[in-house]
Give the backbone structure.
Amino acid sequence: MPHAWRFLIVLILGLALVTLLASFVVRETTRDWFERDVSLRAQLAVNGARQALISHWRKETRGDLRDLLSEITHDERIMAAAACSADLNFLTRTEDYPKEYDCRELGKNVLPREGEPAGKWSLWQSVVSLPGGRAHLSAVPVYDHEQPIGFVVLVHDLSFVERREAKTERFLLIAFGFLAAAAAAVTIIAARVSWRGWSRELRASLQGRTQRPEFQPILRDVRDLVDRMVAEKDADREGGDWTPLRLKQTLNRYLHGEKVIIVANREPYIHERTADGSIKVVHPASGLVTALEPVMRACSGIWIAHGSGSADRETVDHDGHVRVPPGEESYLLRRIWLSPEEEKGYYYGFANEGLWPLCHIAHTRPIFRRDDWNHYQVVNDRFAQAAAKEVDTEDPIVLVKPSAWRQQERSRVADSSQEIRSDETSRGELGGDRVHRELRSTGCITLFTTYSPILSPVSVPTRVEKR
């Protein structure tokens, strides 16, 4: 039905536009008709009284001429009248005649123009605005044996024109409302009937009872979809080989298009400046990159990492973004910048000399230093703020590496492994917990991995565990 409503809205808007244009055309056309009618009536009134006007025109007394003009104004649409002599002076006028329109001003439009015969006076007419409303002025020449002796000015009331225009507009609005209601009813009924018929025919085609040619493309798409679903189900059940297509289909099926964000120190692509000045793209040999980069290619997410390449700053935009892999550009790489001291303390110190032996139960004593721990906290805050800034959905998937644990997990590790000692014990929260807390405040889901059976990952929501 949304299509029917859209069609209905377009139809009503179209009818409204047609009605508006029709109203304008009808108003202008009827106004032109009325003005012509008024002009014709003015000429008929003057021509009908021409003999009487000529007989009273040259009399010394103007009473008879005034009475004749008053008699002409008895017509319901003629408001006032005036008689002007050939020398453009008033002979007489009725009481309601507007004083601002004198004979000299109007005579300029009646007298012959330069180059025209002296006895050829012109009919002049115009629509003017008076205190009582719009009026039509007509200046009609009066001839005695084809010689002009003056002209008569008639003032017609045009209020009846405005009343008829208002009636016409009301009629058009009523017609528009009727047409809109009829069009809406017909459109809805036709849409419902056609939709039911179309659905019935489509179900019959899917069931094989009919073979409508127009439904064949849909049937082919449905069969292809069913075949793919069966193939994916069989592959999941039998544990077939993973391919980029299968990975993408699986992620789309289980993640439902949710955005994936990876937070890791290692970046999947490094831009290095070579000896000849050119920039070379290096794909580092890393287990993390090997495992998770196919996921990013399939999901088109964001990988947040430390920009360690010599040309990394030159290849990103003002937000630290660059699209990778080169040539494919299927996801974003967001680079975080660290000072040499921060990289030494956070990565080579706390992470490599402390966390790595601890996570892998290596036969190497973990080393924890206060300065390394401080750098680790600062860098983790920076990563957490970058991840929170990149989150633009309510339900993203955030993968964090290295792992982070709650405070009580650290005490469990110390109790379970007596061989693990440190030169300087870190106090307070582990930096990864800060990342976890920062991301959880944005509604994200954090996933953690560990190699040790005695270390428990940060609690993950049940919804993710089912996936």
About this structure: The chain has three domains: 2-163, 214-240, 249-466.
